[in-house]
Amino acid sequence: MTDRPFKFDEIGYWSELKLEIVEKYGSAYTKAFVNFPDLKKYYIDGFSGAGMHVSKTTGASIEGSPARALKITPPFDGFCFIDLNSDKTDYLKGVCGGRPDVDIHTGDSNAYLTTRVLPAIQYEKYTRALCLLDPYALDLDWQVILQAGQSQAVDLLLNFPVMDMNRNAIWRDPEKVPKVGIERMNRFWGDESWRAAAYGEAQQRSLFGPEIVKQGNEEIVAAFRDRLKKVAGFGYVADPLPMRNSKNAIVYYLFLASPKAVAEKIIRDIFRKYG
To answer: pTM of this prediction?
Structure first.
């Protein structure tokens, strides 16, 4: 394994739980294909990191999603790990030990997924994938989600970063949101329909006329869940699990979207244990 030229990312307890959930679902996913030897199943991680983290709670080393995916049995037929940080991908190459079934790419995951990876995952091609999209912030392009949904061959585990959305785009006064925040939100959501979800038709009267009222997280999340089904084309989208930090504030929601009904049942059972 290569020497580590950087500090591992420190993760909170909620992220440790997320990794456990991803691992449990990954195990259930590969088991579901044991009777379908002609299907090739892949694990895709669009924001993979180095494959190792440090717990903020205990200071202990915590295996990341790539390291966990590599150990799942029955195994996946191939893996794709992507990250912008070359130090992290270099370290991850050491974790993977030169395995021929692993593709590690340094660069923008949005471009690589839409042009190289997802086109190969299609229902008609007898290829399937479990894809984890856990962006560091509003760094995900809706086109990735759309392409995954339209393939009818991808199960998507998605971090919906509602805290970052509230910090950068969904403000109480929409007129004060900086242009860059709006652009990032448009990119993640796919268009400007997030405004209707964030502010809706709700208005309250004041001495100065109608005032726009910001909706709560629940309304925004519900609108995005609906979008995953009606626009991206995922047949089944489970109610997402809110992931809370040490102050009990919701950092993000963890979504599972799939073309198969059984996927929704499996993730509901897993979420129930962590709810």
So the answer is: 0.93
